[in-house]
Amino acid sequence: MSDPHFFTAQTTLTLRLIAEAAGVPLPEGADPDRTVTGAAPLDRAGPRDLAYMDNARYGDTLAATRAGICLVSPRFAARVPTETVALVLRDPYRAYAALLGRLHPDALRPGSQFGARGIAPGAHVHPEAHLEAGVTVDPGAVVGPGAEIGSGTVIGPNAVIGPFCRIGRDCAIGASASLSHTLMGNRVIVHPGARIGQDGFGFAMGASHLKVPQIGRVIVQDDVEIGANTTIDRGASRDTVIGEGTKIDNLVQIAHNVVIGRHCVIVSGVGISGSTTLEDYVVLGGQVGVVGHLTIGRGSQIAGSSNVNRDVPPGSRWGGTPAKPVRAWFRELTTLARLAERSGSAESRDEAER
């Protein structure tokens, strides 16, 4: 069986280009035309590879690396081997990510799974849909009447774009994803299996539960990324909104009428109940649960596995169940640990006396 490499470098990078991209001067005496043809971890990198290091855990690995060029934070620069060119900067990981995107642009977003250009055989595009030049539609995909799709966008196999949806330019809609009642900006990435724009969970409770029609939309602004098998319900009577630059992991549930601000980060397993607002730059750790009709203030961070049942002030760091400011949460955990230890010691003494 062959052993394919799914992402091969699309270009080479010179030391001069890397230094310019990182915003640092060339090291004295270094050859500005020295090239790298790939990127690799410290322990696997060779003389033609780019690597990075900013974590004390990997100090010994850095000292033994064979990487050609290494992006490194100042406190570890002295450990770079003499055969490796060190570019010292404050945030090596961010610079490495940008350079990795230059080497492997095909890894930045899902592409055609069929290697297609244009509308592939077996795709179903309604004659009343409007696709700009340069749209790719893979086999099995369905594009409904009145849908509009901008140039450079790729619709993966078996994806469904519902009637009158709007998708901007340079987007990627992954395999078997579905969009309905959705307006989407430019450069949005939707990974396989995501569901956007389906009914919110709305019922008038009683002896029999009466379904409440969900007549809102989902608005996804520019540069949003939505993970695999994530669900975003359309609004009940107003719109569900995902703000510009927000990044959503796999397996996230976002309910109807939720408004998420710009540049938020929502990690896998999060559930956000209806009509909750996340202001800009909020971070929710994995498996956080948020009850409905709350506001989580700008720049707040919620620790993984926490449950939020009240408003969170801007700039806060909360954790626990129910979530509370981290200092209070840590005091609570410490107190419980001490009580458990005392209880265990008392039980041991009682057994010894018996």
TrEMBL record:
GO terms for biological process: lipid A biosynthetic process. This is UDP-3-O-acylglucosamine N-acyltransferase. GO terms for cellular component: membrane. It catalyses: a UDP-3-O-[(3R)-3-hydroxyacyl]-alpha-D-glucosamine + a (3R)-hydroxyacyl-[ACP] = a UDP-2-N,3-O-bis[(3R)-3-hydroxyacyl]-alpha-D-glucosamine + holo-[ACP] + H(+). The active site is at H256 (proton acceptor). The gene is lpxD. Residues 33-100 form the UDP-3-O-[3-hydroxymyristoyl] glucosamine N-acyltransferase non-repeat region domain. Keywords: Acyltransferase, Lipid A biosynthesis, Lipid biosynthesis, Lipid metabolism, Repeat, Transferase. Its EC number is 2.3.1.191.
